[in-house]
Amino acid sequence: NGMRSLPEIRGLKGPDDFVGRHFFKRSLHQRAGRVLELGCGTGNNLGLYLAYGWVCVGVDYDPAALADARWNLGEAPEFITADLSQGSPPLSGGFDALIIPN
After folding, report:
1. In 3D, which of 56, 51, 9, 17 has the Cα closest to residue 33?
2. Measured in whole angstroms, how far is the alpha carbon of residue 14 from the centre of its chain?
């Protein structure tokens, strides 16, 4: 399945204000790349990148949040369950952008 419509989204409905402003200010909507979000929750930030063709990888410790992220964004993003306080999980490839929510 693909990205859900806005009324179907579980959790936050859109990206954090700073993420949205940064995305457009840096013209990231005009190119595609690979983005990693540490602490991705339900995928509200990654949804913006996904809508513009980015390859998305999200890491979070909460399996329920990641289940909602998969519901919200579909099968395209890669989601990894990991406790970042124990270090980074194994990641392959490089990234063009890194998101770490506050």
Report:
1. 56
2. 11
User: For tokens 């999980």, what's the residue?
Assistant: 89
pLDDT digits (tens, 9 = 90+) for 43-62: 999 999 999 999 999 999 99
Burial 2-34 (b: 16+ CB within 10 A, else e): ebeeeeebbeeeebeeebeeebeeeebeeeeee
pLDDT of res. 3: 86
Does this model's pTM top 0.85? My answer is yes
Phi, psi of 19 (to 5 degrees): -60, -45
Provide the 8-state DSSP code for 28: G
Other C-beta atoms closer than 10 Å to the C-beta of 63 total 10
Q: Exposure pattern of 36-55 as b/e (b: 16+ CB <10 Å)?
A: bbbbbbbbbbbbbbbeeebb
